[in-house]
Amino acid sequence: MIAESYSLFKKDFHSELRTRYAINSLAMFIIVAISVILFSIGNETISSSLTGGLFWVVIFFTAMSGLARAFVSEEERGTTLTLQLIAPPTTVFSGKLVFNMILVFCMNFVIAIIYSALFENFIVQNFSLFVVTFILGNIGLAVASTIIAAIIAKAGAKGTLYPVLSFPILLPLILTCVQLTLFSFDGTSFVESKFELAIVVGYDVIMITASYMLFDFIWKD
Predict the structure, then answer these.
(1) Does pTM surpass 0.85?
(2) 9-12 long-range contacts, Cβ below 8 Å, gap at least 24?
(3) Is the torsion defined by CA of 35, 108, 177, 181 positive or negative?
(4) Which of 144, 63, 147 shows the shortest CA–CA distance to 105?
(5) pLDDT tens, position by position, 77-110
(6) CA distance to 7, 153, 199, 212, per residue, from 2 (Å)
(7) CA separation for the pair 56, 47 (Å, rounded)
(8) What is the spatial distance between Cα 118 and Cα 110, in angstroms, rounded to a whole number?
(9) 181 with 52: CB under 8 angstroms?
């Protein structure tokens, strides 16, 4: 299964290198979103709490602009039936998930670098807590985005349906990650942040378990 998942990941990776659809859309949205924020605040100094909130807002909407095509591309190319014949559902989902996870981590790493360079209040006091929040948040974002992309792949209004489904599912994750990011700015310890960390870990575990349990039905229907 690992070899087949890796082969599917390579297929998506090489396809993305040829078309650069997701990379271009993600890059353009990051540039536009951060530019609009900078022009909006002008010479004003925004607080660290607002900076942390805007950081995850940009991450959320950037993901909405580039991660919806995980399974839509298969429908457009007519390769869905071929994948159903040659690979079990868990293998297909694993390959797509790995690709989306790498894309999410690269995207959000770039956003974090840009934020730290352009926003003076983006100062992390507890770097370990920020890294843990960043990793757990990205995992949850990638898993949720992948299963939602599978759900809307056969729908008519894919572009509209994806953010509509994503918002209520990702809202608990985004809100908790915003709170943990603020804790990392304030230098809050892991012990004091254990409740929020437990929420993010629980969210990731639930989403991964539910995704693998449900994907078989989603993929065949």
Answers:
(1) yes
(2) 9/95, 9/96, 9/98, 9/99, 11/95, 12/70, 12/95, 12/96, 12/99
(3) negative
(4) 63
(5) 666 677 777 778 788 888 888 888 888 898 889 8
(6) 9, 24, 29, 15
(7) 15
(8) 12
(9) yes
